């Protein structure tokens, strides 16, 4: 890869050779995840002109690859006149190594992203640099075309841009607007078909709930983010067909809703409630539905819940895709700690499993996020190899906003919330873990077997099942109970 | 390895291979706990009772004297989940006591006997559970799918019902849209686009070029998905160009379309009947494949 790059530079006279070689020498034998900063940005002078050239040199290599690989050049943003004087032998070399050139482009994109992240993490003078890098990056990539890495780079680039715009302290700019409603439904269906992410979380939680309420007549579930309520369809079916324990237990679901419009508004949630009620009626499950509104600042108040004596109380907290993870972690905190005050029978929590924060600061966490989402993209690609447009839709509707949020979160860089997953938090504040049963684990394995061999499930701790793709952990489902409760 | 090399007990003389064959008129292989465990291990290694075949199991187990015939019938019983249970119950006591006699060397032979029994029970229980889980999973996935259908159908129906519902939508004039909220309707969009093409003569770079939905679906090769038409139709246009999509769609929303109703409704019904999507394995499940597959 690196060798090819060295060939072509003589034809591009405007570039600074020395910096170029520095770049390429780092590429040799480089595993992207081990990538270390090419250049110490802070050492180089603040003169933007120099950076401009440097970036151009990095990018030009990309662009030439880009042009020769693609038979149809959709990327109109590329400034063609600047680059179409590439030498013929260079192009030939490119064609020969199209495959590795693609990898190389991917690597380039990662370099650019990392460079931008570095610039943002550094002193303020580097902000301008970051912007320049991001602009150039944007020219190279598209959210719907190209390889996984290219599409991923678009979203990460946008996310960095948004974080830059928002500033270090303020709330992120209103970037990810609510999507076309129709898209959300389509993307949701696709996501479920392509991957076990949705079902894994739902089924694992449901199985734990079923086991916990095996002998109860009344069950009350408080759901943090009910969305369409699809999780409860399979729970109801299971309740209706359960053999031991009191038959036909009454199920009550309280959905948390928020003020305002949008996906979690009162109206939307009510619609979900109607649908669930109809479904329950169709299978003969005694059912009732309620809503509980959050305060204006999205705090959960346990007092606003209607409780019935003798019912088994369950708190359900789904934070993974496609649930849009909430902007205010305080809201989740209030929900979970509020739950604690009510001594629930069970708390089910499904969240993304991130590696523990590395010491690399913002850049380290950024690269970790990149790795995480890259894995997700890979898994979806394997699940749906030909349907790149379908995947692009899912990426646009769910993954893109997720990336945006995650990057913004780590950029704001609050150490406290960084360190800890919600699971750890639950453990720390005193909830007791509940073991995952053999049946639950078995179900997860069977479920994953329906999709692809690349997926695996492991029992990380006795109360936590983790779904992973190849060697990377992606999603975790954990079960807890209140300390005073005897299961 | 399956049994101590010591000489036999009542009616189970051992072969050199270590397999226990009965002295019944018809010599049958006795599936002892250890043999069965090895069997279960092999099956799990191969990915479960449905994926494993007698031949592969035989290879993995590597037990001399074990024939395909033995394995075929045992696998069948294993899949059904009943026979092993019975066998264990019938023979468990006998096995336990016979083994106990044989293990003279073991000082804790009494305990060995008991724990053997427990192990058998445990294995038995696990087998049963696994099968139960499999059955339940099937049902749950179906329920999940059924519910998903109701969402999609509702979305389609609401569109076709047109302006019957009232809504508090601030920005959108088309009533049903607000009511649908996040489901909106892909069909809705498709419909509107088709209508708009004929009624509104605007020049815009909209992806709605009046192609039929089937053509779109083909373009995307989403026929394979077999998802409801809603999804087929709208994925194409919406993912092509983000910017213009939103513009064109919101423009469309501002005027009330005239839906052709009946004809289109039929079209959707037809498409809805298609089996649920996805990779071959799930197709089997959703078509009830798991149930009707040869378990025995």
UniProtKB/TrEMBL annotation, chain A:
<keyword id="KW-0805">Transcription regulation</keyword>
<comment type="similarity">
    <text>Belongs to the GRAS family.</text>
</comment>
<dbReference type="Pfam" id="PF03514">
    <property type="entry name" value="GRAS"/>
</dbReference>
<dbReference type="InterPro" id="IPR005202">
    <property type="entry name" value="TF_GRAS"/>
</dbReference>
<keyword id="KW-0804">Transcription</keyword>
<feature type="region of interest" description="Leucine repeat II (LRII)">
    <location>
        <begin position="271"/>
        <end position="303"/>
    </location>
</feature>
<feature type="region of interest" description="SAW">
    <location>
        <begin position="408"/>
        <end position="481"/>
    </location>
</feature>
<feature type="short sequence motif" description="VHIID">
    <location>
        <begin position="219"/>
        <end position="223"/>
    </location>
</feature>
<protein>
    <recommendedName>
        <fullName>DELLA protein</fullName>
    </recommendedName>
</protein>
TrEMBL record, chain B:
<dbReference type="InterPro" id="IPR046955">
    <property type="entry name" value="PHR1-like"/>
</dbReference>
<comment type="similarity">
    <text>Belongs to the MYB-CC family.</text>
</comment>
<feature type="domain" description="HTH myb-type">
    <location>
        <begin position="23"/>
        <end position="83"/>
    </location>
</feature>
<feature type="region of interest" description="Disordered">
    <location>
        <begin position="255"/>
        <end position="296"/>
    </location>
</feature>
<dbReference type="Pfam" id="PF14379">
    <property type="entry name" value="Myb_CC_LHEQLE"/>
</dbReference>
<dbReference type="InterPro" id="IPR001005">
    <property type="entry name" value="SANT/Myb"/>
</dbReference>
<keyword id="KW-0175">Coiled coil</keyword>
<keyword id="KW-0539">Nucleus</keyword>
<feature type="compositionally biased region" description="Basic and acidic residues">
    <location>
        <begin position="262"/>
        <end position="274"/>
    </location>
</feature>
<dbReference type="InterPro" id="IPR006447">
    <property type="entry name" value="Myb_dom_plants"/>
</dbReference>
<dbReference type="GO" id="GO:0005634">
    <property type="term" value="C:nucleus"/>
</dbReference>
<keyword id="KW-0805">Transcription regulation</keyword>
<dbReference type="GO" id="GO:0003677">
    <property type="term" value="F:DNA binding"/>
</dbReference>
<keyword id="KW-0804">Transcription</keyword>
<dbReference type="InterPro" id="IPR025756">
    <property type="entry name" value="Myb_CC_LHEQLE"/>
</dbReference>
<protein>
    <recommendedName>
        <fullName>HTH myb-type domain-containing protein</fullName>
    </recommendedName>
</protein>
<dbReference type="GO" id="GO:0003700">
    <property type="term" value="F:DNA-binding transcription factor activity"/>
</dbReference>
<dbReference type="Pfam" id="PF00249">
    <property type="entry name" value="Myb_DNA-binding"/>
</dbReference>
<dbReference type="InterPro" id="IPR017930">
    <property type="entry name" value="Myb_dom"/>
</dbReference>
